[in-house]
Write a structure and sequence with these properties.
This protein has a single domain, classed as Thiamin diphosphate (ThDP)-binding fold, Pyr/PP domains (Rossmann fold, 3-Layer(aba) Sandwich). Helices cover 46% and strands 13% of the residues. The longest helix has 26 residues. The chain binds magnesium ion.
């Protein structure tokens, strides 16, 4: 299954990418670049011991937030613990995230929460962070959708999908037809244990049995944006998106090269779309901004 997800959009320009206006494709890529270069600066800061909080890096998983932030503009956001890309792509100020990770009072939670609990209530963004109990954000998101009537996007991981209160909350959302998009960022790992060793069932089948539309897709950003555009008009709904985490569950280390790197695939496809020069400029600008942000 994972191999299929990797090869689904590798090396061949997909029609769906060609159907997007150039400015949208470049904006998705810009958001990916901001997230990637923020995290690369954070890795350096961890190695230099300027950041000592445990960090949950979004490296490798950037496309989900980059694509969905283009589509779900007015949605309230409930994140999982790995949420830097979500915060940055939806419009959170990068300086406040850096300050939170450095434990400074100017951080998103006054420097008291750290990497897994990032909030945002500015720039038109309403984002609630995670507090440490895996999957807790799912019933909270459902309650927020019920109480406010506002559309909500709720991110969780493939490990959280195994918690009973997550299933119960999604069932409640389905029964009451709440305006919520559930997004499983499925990196195939619960810390270090792959899905196939943990369960024999797919969460998409569970969500479908509870009565909502579901999709199971690779982390190609054009596909993610396209499917989200369709699903947001028929909520509640569920997306299982196969991503590839580049770094450890927590911390800046790696266990060798990742299985795939969607970032490089997207760069190839932008080249095939004739946008290579513009993409290079976007990347350079984002890299410079994030390097300045993390300068000692
Ligand atoms: Mg996982």
């Amino acid at each position: 299954m994972r191999g299929n997800m990797r090869s689904a959009t590798t090396g061949v320009l997909q029609n769906i990418a060609s159907s997007f206006p150039a400015n949208e494709s470049l904006e998705i890529y810009r958001r990916m670049c901001i997230s990637r270069h923020f995290e690369l600066g954070l890795v350096r800061a961890v190695k230099e011991k300027r950041v000592t909080y445990p960090v949950y890096l979004s490296l490798g998983q950037e496309t989900v937030a980059a694509a969905l932030s283009m589509v779900l503009r007015d949605f309230m956001i409930f994140t999982q613990h790995r949420c830097h890309a979500t915060f940055l792509c939806f419009g959170g100020p990068a300086g406040k995230l850096r300050d939170e990770l450095m434990g400074l009072p100017t951080g998103t939670s006054g420097g008291r929460a750290g990497s897994n609990c990032i909030q945002c209530h500015e720039n038109g963004v309403t984002m609630f962070g995670h507090h440490g109990l895996i999957g807790e954000n799912v019933p909270q998101a459902v309650g927020a959708a019920l109480g406010s009537g506002r559309p909500v996007v709720c991110f969780f991981g493939d490990g959280a999908a195994e918690e009973d209160y997550v299933v119960a909350a999604i069932g409640f959302a389905s029964t009451h037809r709440l305006p919520i998009l559930f997004v499983c960022e499925d990196n195939d790992l619960s810390i270090l244990t792959p899905v196939e060793k943990r369960r024999s069932w797919r969460f998409g089948d569970v969500a479908a049995s509870l009565g909502m539309k579901t999709v199971e897709i690779a982390d190609d950003p054009w596909t993610i944006a396209d499917r989200a555009r369709e699903l947001k008009n028929d909520l509640p709904a569920f997306m299982n998106i196969h991503v590839c985490r580049s770094n450890w569950h927590v911390g800046a280390g790696t266990d060798g090269a990742p299985e795939w790197d969607r970032f490089s695939f997207v760069e190839s496809e932008l080249g095939m779309l004739g946008l290579g020069k513009e993409a290079a400029a976007v990347k350079a600008e984002s890299a410079d901004a994030m390097e300045a942000l993390w300068a000692p």
